[in-house]
Amino acid sequence: MKKLKVTIDGKTIEVPENTTVLDAARMLDIQIPTLCHHPKLTPFGGCRLCIVEIKGIPRPVTSCTTPVSDGMEVTTSSPQIEDLRKTVLELILSDHPNDCMVCEKAGDCTLQELAYFYGIRENRFGGERRVYAKRDGNPFIERDMEKCILCGRCVKVCDEVQGVGAIDFTYRGFKSKICPPYEKDLNCEFCGQCVAVCPTGALTGKQWSLRGRQKDIKEIDTTCPYCGTGCNITLHVRRNEVVRITSREDTWNEGWLCVKGRFGYKFINSPDRLKKPLIRIKDRSNSLNDIFREASWDEALDYIATRLNEIKSKHGADAIGGLSSARCTNEENYLFQKLMRAAVGTNNVDHCARL
Amino acid sequence: MTNSIREIEGNEVIFIIGSNTKETHPVIANRMIKAYRNGAKIIVADPRRVPMTRFSELFLNLKPGTDVALLNGIAHVILKEGLHNKEFINNRTEGFDEWKKSVEDFTPDYVEKITGVDRGDIIKAAKLYGSSQRAGIFYTMGITQHTCGTDNVNAVANLALITGNIGKPSAGINPLRGQNNVQGASDAGCMPNVYPGYQRVDLPDIKHKFESAWGASLSPHAGLKSTEMIPAALDGKLKGLYIMGENPVITDPNIEHTIKALNAVEFLVVQDIFMTETAELADVVLPAACFAEKDGTFSNTERKVQRVRKAVIPPEEARDDISIIMELSKRLGYNMEYNSPEEVFEEFGKVWPALAGITYGRIEKHGIQWPCPTKNHPGTTYLYKGGFPRGKVHFTPTAYTPPAEITDSDYPFILTTGRNLFQYHSGSMTRRVKPIETHAGEPYVEISPSDAKGLDIKDGDMVKVISRRGNIKIKARVTKKASKGVIFIPMHYSEAAANMLTNDKALDKHAKTPEFKVCAAKIEK
To answer: How far apart are the C-alpha atoms of A119 and A94, rounded to whole Å?
Structure first.
């Protein structure tokens, strides 16, 4: 493949054809601020924060949409560029609620970070603000369109990655907004890919609300418990509660999840969880209330061992069977079959692969 | 899967048969869409207009249970067009000539009559799949949950073999496994005929190996499969049953029958995280830890061993399954001592060489795909590179046999069951997640607009679906997703459980998998 030479801020690198100036800069570990750019989505050039100066071109250009050409000389930061970037940010923030103190995304928000780095405390632009009183009634995704900066990442991910196209830009100019057809409530696959790529607090999980923000969270990487795809997920834990699930971009599943993997975690803390061993006190046919009583682990396990030994001595080990679980770990499954084979003495062990 | 999920991006042709990938494996569907954006051609064969048909070049809307005929028909056309890979067939397979005779009758006309798929589309599919050297077949329970499930799988394999689409990247046979660790549970030997690593219990040398590894004397004959335990319980042969993390009342065919069988055993132990419909029948219920409360590994559908990590502590006295099993084993007179799940995994690797090279340390960040025999082996992204382990692989002729229960004037509809996007399996987890219940908490039967019109049923009407096993009241969802004569009920909802209706008597003769995908039913308003 043809290699092109590009010099960025005095550093030279050779890159393959069709590499953008932004990607080339990132290869050189040169930071260029972005809001609408996402490495897994097609470039948009909408936010104008990634502007750079290129020798021979009289005006700043967006680095995310400009491919490198051979011998190109790029400057990523100059007083003029930084001034333009700051103005862009001020314009965005002039129509933003700026309610970081109560925003779910605080501490994990690209817009907030940029405002911090550019030192934007007060805003010289006043004027009209977008007000959207209506709340989207869907049960999964909070869509706070007043916080939307129209970067379009959600529109792209929904179309390009998910193949759904549940949302798009509507209206024009100041009235531009992103919404489902006819501004109805969102009714889609609820994969939450849009939530994952949103750079502000415009899109969040409804279940996340008031469960804790990023600074209080401990992140634990693990594997999704639902289907056999085995997506890598990150559990966000606060005070012994899983309050959110995300997936990192550098995982094999590229950070994409489905509705169950992303939003189906509340069973963990369900009040219905079994909490103590239970022993039946009423006949099986009598399935009314109070058919179980609580027992200690010792009592329950002793009872099981006694009953299984009874059956074994009376009818042989093959009168006992075990069903293991495709939901449990390798280690648990290994031990379960070892228990059935070595401790009970039967090969009557199976799991639900057929069902 | 013989390939990796990542390799899907490189597929030229993606042939999806009997898999509603977009709903049951959504993130794998994302990869397929990525391949589609790169120009891959997608063929979908399914009795339902599943969402992946939005991206398909060809949709083969076959009648349930006619997969063998369709696959044989595609093979027939590939041979006729001379698209088969002669070099691969000569070097890597045997039994080709005999098998070739078995597909001679499966002309497009004949196959159209059986499957209902237009003969022109059968030819198109054959040309598309047969012309590609980077074609993958993807299937799930739509292939396996039939009385002819094993034949279906063999017919899939034959297609890959005649075109040489196996043993290389982005070309292979890819069953998508439905549960997080169904691969691992099988690998770990939770099957009645094999020890960990698919090593047969009835071979004396193997038995001896495990007897010395475990220090116990072991049974020399294969045990009962899950679908055989239920009748054995009714016959009085099975007296005690220990169920860890399964809910057969909802997931097995013919619920009434399953309940009767579980009530017939003298002693039933259920270990679970919730009081499931199965746990309600138990003599002892043990509270277990869920995935977020324990350490270990899961193996996904592409044979990748990945870490599971403890993030929270279990509620009150609930314990992880390993400690429960160790305690119980001790009380049964067989001591198991492990200080950590990692020690168990190390032992697993000692008895099965395919895992020997995988350690917790190596999979700290990214999983490794077995086989991985040594500590410096990178793992195996696709199987059968450079040959099959047994040398030449045999073509298995597959005859078309109709499903066990066919429609008649009393039961004119074919009922097929499966999952939807939002709920998961018996629902014990997802039905306790509020947003999922709000959005998809109600059972329904999918019925085609023309059938609905014929029965004067409107979308949202309550109807009664009846089979020879039982009946349920359920809301009608009139949708073009359903084909004429075929209705679909998701399996998740105990209040209108699909498995009240399904056929427990129809099992695949080899795998003993129930025919969930075809039974006869009628609908009354």
So the answer is: 14
Instruction: Choose the final residue of a domain: B323, B344, B373.
Output: B373
pLDDT digits (tens, 9 = 90+) for A188-232: 999 999 999 999 999 999 999 999 999 889 999 999 999 999 999
Q: Who among A160, A267, A323 is closest to B226 (CB)?
A: A323
B76 & B34 share domain: yes
Which of B312, B341, B373 delimits the end of a domain? B373
Q: What is the CATH number of the domain that holds B511?
A: 2.40.40.20
pLDDT of A354 strictly over 90: no
Instruction: Check CB contact under 8 Å for A351 and B182.
Output: yes
- Look at residue A133 in the predicted model and tell me its pLDDT: 87
Q: Please report whether residue B332 resides in a domain.
A: yes
- Is the same domain home to B195 and B161? no
| Distance between B181 CA and the closest CA of chain A, angstroms | 5
d(CA B393, nearest CA chain A) in Å: 25
In the structure encoding, which two tokens stand for residue B289, read together? 């830890």
**In a shared domain, residues B518 and B472:** yes
Q: Check pLDDT > 90 for residue B416.
A: yes
Chain B partners within 8 Å of A311 (Cβ): 239-240, 266-267
And the tokens for B287? 């509270």
Calculate the alpha carbon distances from A349 to A2, A89, B204, B228, B242 in Å. Answer: 59, 63, 19, 11, 9
pLDDT in the model for residue A1: 77
**Domain with B166 in it:** 6-176
Structure tokens at B298: 């899961």
Same domain for B242 and B256, yes or no, is yes
Beta bridge partner(s), residue A349: A322
B230 and B211 together in one domain: no
Overall number of domains in chain B: 4
C-alpha distance from B119 to closest chain A C-alpha (Å): 30
DSSP annotation string for A157-224: IIIIITS----EEES-GGG-EEESGGG----S----HHHHH-SSTTEEEGGGTTS--GGGPEEEEEE-
Look at residue B2 and tell me whether its pLDDT is greater than 80: yes
Give yes or no: residues B340 and B260 share one domain: no
Q: Which of B179, B242, B283 sits opposite A227 (nearest CB)?
A: B179
The pLDDT of B271-292, averaged and rounded, is 97
From A42's Cα to the closest Cα of chain B, the distance in A is 12
For residue B399, tell me if it sits in a domain. no
Same domain membership, residue B346 and residue B481: no
Tell me, what CATH number does B29's domain have? Answer: 3.40.228.10
Tell me the chain A residues in contact with residue B37 when contact means C-beta distances shorter than 8 Å. 160
> What are the two backbone dihedrals, phi and then psi, of residue B259, each rounded to the nearest 5 degrees?
-65, -45
Spans of all domains in chain A: 3-77, 316-355
Contacts of B318 in chain A (CB under 8 A): 273-275
ipTM value for the complex: 0.96
Within a domain: residue B400? Answer: no
Residue in A189, A222, A354 closest to B311 by CB: A222
CA quadruple B415, B420, B425, B428: dihedral positive or negative? Answer: negative
d(C-alpha A246, C-alpha A222), whole Å: 11
B9-29 pLDDT, tens digit per residue, is 999 999 999 999 999 999 999
Is the pLDDT confidence value at A41 over 80? Answer: yes
The verdict on a CB contact (< 8 Å) between A280 and B436 is no
Interface contact flag, A304 B284, Cβ < 8 Å: yes
A288 has a pLDDT exceeding 70: no
> The CATH number of the domain where B315 resides is what?
3.40.50.740
* Residue A235 · residue B292 · CB < 8 Å: yes
CB < 8 Å to A196, chain B: none
Distance from CA of A173 to the nearest CA of B (A): 31
B167/B107 same-domain check: yes
Edge-to-edge strand order for the sheet containing A11-16? A11-16, A3-8, A72-75, A51-54, A61-62
The CATH number of the domain covering residues in A3-77: 3.10.20.740
Which residue out of B4, B179, B190, B276 would a mutagenesis test of the A interface target, given it has the greatest number of A Cβ atoms within 10 Å? Answer: B190
pLDDT tens figures, B189-221: 999 999 999 999 999 999 999 999 999 999 999
Question: What residues in B contact A156, CB-CB < 8 Å?
Answer: none
In the prediction, which pLDDT does A285 show?
66
Residues B184, A333: C-beta atoms closer than 8 Å: yes
What pLDDT is stored for residue B218 in this prediction?
97
Could you tell me what percent of chain B has a pLDDT over 90? 99
